[in-house]
Amino acid sequence: MATSQKRLALAIIDFLSKSLKDGTVSSEDTESIEIATSCIADSFHVDPNDRAALKDAIGDQSLLSIYGVYEKLKGKTSTAPMPGAASGGKASTETPQPSGPTPTNPEAESFKSQGNAAMQQKDYAKAIDLYSKAINLSPTNPIYLSNRAAAYSASNKHAEAVADAELAVSADPKYTKAWSRLGLARFVLGDAKGSMEAYQKGIEYEGNGGSEAMKKGFKTAKEKVEEEEKEGASDDAERDATGPTRGAGGGGAGGMPDLGALASMLGGGGGGGGGMPDLGGLMNNPMFASMAQNLMSNPEALQGLMNNPRLRDLAQGMGGGGGGGMPDISAMMSDPALRDM
Known about the structure:
Elements: H1 3-21, H2 30-44, H3 51-58, H4 63-73, H5 106-120, H6 124-137, H7 142-154, H8 158-171, H9 176-188, H10 192-206, H11 212-242, H12 259-265, H13 279-283, H14 286-297, H15 300-306, H16 309-317, H17 329-334, H18 336-339
Helix pairs in contact: 1-2, 1-3, 5-6, 6-7, 7-8, 7-9, 8-9, 9-10, 9-11, 10-11
């Protein structure tokens, strides 16, 4: 029987045992798990108590953590996104759990070394291909994932760089280069907040206040976040200041034309109660109602209408018209000069 199959059997037995211990499986199912474990051990001729064999099979990781990375590589994960991941740009507070180093694969290491040489020659496409071959052999290795993220960034494929860097920090959050590459890729994509959080994680895992490079990245991202917040506050203030009168030519609140001002200009100061024009009477006139409707659908026309000298002449000429100080609306509306405005 192939050694890889025995290793997988040991990994499954380890997963089942841990599922009992951590409460994933109810204690009522203990007997079933023990029977399953015994059957797997007998069928694959492995010893569940051989800790050296188990360590050789999965290192310091677990079958669950390995499968979690596999799901992310295949894009099928349903777990919460990494801090600042695409979701409208909102950062998650979930911290990936360490899964430990991946056992070294000599062939994968060879591909990684060749990829590093291609990076030095700035042959980024070749480096991506070589790192991908290494990842196919060792999908949870954070170094391979992080290196490919760097190659993607150098190729201006920053979305792909973010995906690889997130997988790398998920596989081993202590590998701080991955946090740095995640911070850079997010920053270039315009996610300054996510970038700042990635650099912050890198500083935390580096310890002792973090490296100068990590702190510089954090500072740059933080300054960008503060700048965006100030710009947003400034835009809000500008909208608040200009919103009520925008498009109204000095008219009423909310951008609506000031019909009271129009009626007052026509001599209606003594119309309705409190010196207001008799808008009820005005709106009963179909031609005035039509004109008001046009003004409401095109508020910008109000300013031009109020500044029209012919309309002012008509208003002055009819100042003694209708009762209560209002002009004779019927006479005004029959005037072709006003009707055609």
